[in-house]
Predict the 3D structure of the following.
Amino acid sequence: MEIYNYILPNSTEAAENFVDGINKILPEIAKYPTAYPSERRLPTKRNLYRFRNYKRNYKIIFKVLKSKTVFVAITFSGRSDEAYKQFRTAKY
């Protein structure tokens, strides 16, 4: 929603297209989560965190567990390494 709200004042259509594109990609990721590269900014021994690029400047970050895939964030890929630490979670 944060990215949607950022785009919305400039173009309602662009904001809607952004969300629609994400919604088309999520089932693909859920079907083959280990096909995507590990997120180097969130290292773990078992490469739990992975990502898929979206529209060149954004990343969809997700966590691959034994029984499920947890979508963690959609973020601007140019964020600092420090900002990525907030996406690490032990809740799952």
In short: The chain has one domain: 2-87.
